[in-house]
Structures are given as structure tokens and as C-alpha cells.
Amino acid sequence: SQQGEEDPQALSIQEGENATMNCSYKTSINNLQWYRQNSGRGLVHLILIRSNEREKHSGRLRVTLDTSKKSSSLLITASRAADTASYFCATDDTGNTPLVFGKGTRLSVIA
Amino acid sequence: GAVVSQHPSWVICKSGTSVKIECRSLDFQATTMFWYRQFPKQSLMLMATSNEGSKATYEQGVEKDKFLINHASLTLSTLTVTSAHPEDSSFYICSTERSSYNEQFFGPGTRLTVL
Prior knowledge:
- The complex is a heterodimer of chains A (111) and B (115).
- Chain A is built from no helices and eleven strands.
- Chain A has strands spanning 5-7, 10-14, 19-24, 31-37, 43-50, 55-58, 61-66, 71-76, 85-92, 100-101, 105-110.
- Chain A is globular.
- Chain B is mainly beta and 115 residues long.
- In chain B, strands 2, 4, 5, 6, 9, 10 and 11 form a seven-stranded mixed sheet that branches. Chain B has a four-stranded antiparallel sheet with strand order 1-3-8-7, with no helix packed on it.
- In chain B, strand 9 and strand 10 (103-106) form a beta hairpin.
- In chain B, 36% of the residues are buried.
- Chain A binds chain B through residues 2, 31, 33, 35, 40-43, 45, 48, 88, 95-96, 98-104, 106, and chain B through 1, 32, 34, 36, 41-46, 49, 91, 93, 95, 97, 99, 102-109, 111.
């Protein structure tokens, strides 16, 4: 069964705007990861945040993690049309276990 | 990061035929690989965990006799969809995990269309 939920399910913004996607999960985790998936393509790993971390940055990406609320957010700043994709959060509880994915947010960035 | 390949990248077959999908870990040995399925506009759902040298572990609701998994070597796992039906049409993705990276590496996926 799926661990978490992303919201919104779909998001449409103008190029240059920031996009914020949220992910909630149900059980305790070891790590939380965000992936991007372009239509019909495989997954691209964006960022991993460990359960003892609260915030992480990578380029235009900012991820926060609130383990007390069992939630995470992904912020993409200064969005570009190329950022159009589905974004998934995924959690794991220990090493070498499969990831459990949320349902994803479909982001459309309009030029 | 590690490289995982899948073959074929897409396949179209007739209903009732069997289709084999290969997943290869190209630059490290993977004792464990995972197979996911993704229906259009939905999230990835774990199908099974493939263990080298032993039987795969299937998720609830996944028929082990229909989705045959063979992990014969440390770099290759295969998923065979037997007697495929149109409802099996999906995107199948495998992944491996290198524990030191604490990250899963995904293959590019295989799109299966059953007519």
C-alpha cells in the first residue's frame, strides 16, 4: 500500500514562479527522497533527506522535513518549462528496503 | 551514481504471449533488486523484491505465477509477464540499492502494451 500522499495532485504555474509540493507519510522513516519523472520516462533522483535532517538544498531545490508532522515539502524556485514533470516523494524505513511512493504531483510550468 | 539498464525499453505483444524484461546493474553487484509497476498517471507500486539466489518476495495482490522473477546473477534480474493481457499494459521499472549510497537507482523503465 502507498505510504504517503502528495498535494496538490496537480499544479500549474508560470515560468519564474516558485512551486511547492507537499508530501505526508504515515509511519516512521529512515529517509525521504524526492524523484522527478518526465512523462513516460524513468525516475530521476532529486534529493534525499534523512530523518534527522530538517532542511536540505540542491540548486533550485529546497526540501524540508518535519518528522513530528510526518510531512515534507519540495520547493522549486524560479521554475522553468523544463521542470514540467511529475514529482514523487518516497520513503524507506531501513536500508535495503523498497521505497514506498506517494501518488505524485503533476507540475506544469507554462512559458 | 550507479547505472541500471532495462531491456527492452518498450514492447508490444499480443494477448496470451509472454514477455521477458531484463534489469541489469551495470557497475555494481546487486543482491537485491526491486520491481515496480506504474499505470498511466499513477504512482509506482512495488510488485516484488528480487533476491539473488533465492525466491522473490511478492507484494500482496501480485500473482507470483503470472509475474515470474529470476535473479540468477548479481547483475541481472528478469521479470517475465506470462500470458499477458491488456490489463497488464503498464510501465515496469526496476531498481537497485547500493547501501553505501543509501539511494535507489532506477532503470529507465519498460513500457509494455498488450493488444
